[in-house]
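Let us work through a complete example step by step.
Step 1: write down the sequence.
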Amino acid sequence: MADSYLTFAADYDWLFDDDVLTDGGAINYPAAARLFQRAERGQAVLDASCGTGINAAALARRGFDVWGTDGSEAMVEQAAARFRREQLVIPVRRCLWADLPRTLAERFDTVLCVGNSLVHAAGRDAMVEALTGLRRMARPGGHVVIDSRNWEKLNAERRIVRVANRVLTRHGRRCLSFYAWEIPDRLHDEHVAHIAFVFEDGAWVETHEYPISFRPFTVAELRERLELAGLREVDNDYDESRDQYCLIAEATRA
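Step 2: predict the structure and record it as tokens.
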């Protein structure tokens, strides 16, 4: 997974409009929003799939004590640059989910694994190992937040090309992004998204393409693996008609 994001990290923020860059993405999904609305400011949050730091920065601006980790060194570098620009004190380092308990001594009120990232833990055993690492980072009574693409919906609809609903303009550059999917017949086979950015600068057009592979899972399989990892679901906003969803879990054992 990490190598897939080596060059993608530099363009990653073009996937999101300016509101997401300011206010965060998956942390505003209904289930996650309910959790953070109840949380006291100053609580400790680990964004364990921080990417370029969008959600971590938004939570820090809301008054939470935020740390960030990611499995991609390139993403960690982009996140650290964001935190410096915004003068946010957010420790950030590269770490795989299963290695978190051996790497960080701190424990957290909320542990995030968002941005449709858990799908990179390909297969049942790898996912359970990752979820166990995430669980062990939560304090007693703490929560683990997981979001996912609705893979069942994507596989059933078989919409190969999905184009962003607007052209973004930043620093004099215009960009339109889209996904071109390789969708196999079977849900559990590898799905590949060719994520493309079309940049316009006057009369010139430049394209960047990044193929990212996924091993999808169903919502039922996610729930089963949460239980195997010692996590109990306490809230969700799953809707079979929506493209994405979020589950909130808490630890059933230390």
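Step 3: interpret the result. The two ends are 28 Å apart (CA to CA).
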